[in-house]
Amino acid sequence: MRGIRLFERNRSRDLRAYQTQAEEKLWRRLRGRQLAGWKFVRQHPIGPYFGDFVCRERKLIVEVDGATHSSDEEIAYDARRTTFLEEAGYRVLRINNIDVSQSLESVCDTILAALERD
Fold first, then answer.
1. How many structural domains comprise the chain?
2. Could you tell me the pTM of the whole model?
3. Which of 51, 56, 64, 75 has CA atoms 20 to 30 A from the CA of 114?
4. Cβ(36)–Cβ(65) under 8 Å?
5. Which domain CATH number covers 75?
6. Banded model confidence at residue 69, pLDDT cuts 50, 70, 90
7. For residue 5, is pLDDT > 80?
8. Average of per-residue pLDDT values in the chain
9. What is the domain range of residue 33?
10. pLDDT value for 100
11. What does the H/E/C string look like for the chain?
């Protein structure tokens, strides 16, 4: 069990170290409870997957997707991943890199609406 936790911690660190520009930009708005007091963590392990940004209190995962999520194979993988996460009790909100880059405030409004939804 200790080896699994060490792997998860190392993988989380790697994912945080190599985040996209959009992920970095969104994290600057989510970190430190800046979004209406909600706490988010980055690259949080959930089963075999890692959520980009996770509000554990509301069980909301915000995924920031770019061009690497457009092939049939990647779409199928994302669908399997989303199914697993939803079966684990999470809601998955997918945000496009371009939306983060061009309309960060609208993205934050969308996330806030999802957090406040039952």
1. 1
2. 0.83
3. 75
4. no
5. 3.40.960.10
6. low
7. no
8. 87
9. 2-116
10. 97
11. CHHHHHHHHHHHHHHHHCCCHHHHHHHHHHHHHCCCCCCCEEEEEECCEEEEEEECCCCEEEEEECHHHCCHHHHHHHHHHHHHHHHCCCEEEEEEHHHHHHCHHHHHHHHHHHHHCC
